[in-house]
Amino acid sequence: MTAVDEASVAPPVETFDNRVPFAEELIEQARRDPRVVAVCNDSVGSSNLVAFREEFPDRLINVGIAEQDLVGVGAGLANAGFVPFVCGAAPFLTGRSLEQVKVDVAYSQLPVTLCGMSPGMAYGELGPTHHSVEDFSWLRALPGLDIVVPADREQTRQAVRNAVEMPRPAFIRVGRFKVPDLPKGTPRLERGRIQTIRKGSDVTLIGLGSTLPRALAAADRLAADGVSARVLNAAYLAPLDVATIEAAARETRAIVTAEEANVSGGVGAAVSAVISGLESSARVPIEILGLHEFAPTGSTGFLLERYGLTEESIAEAAKAALTRG
Question: Fewest CB atoms within 10 Å of the CB: 49, 75, 184, 314?
Answer without folding.
Answer: 184
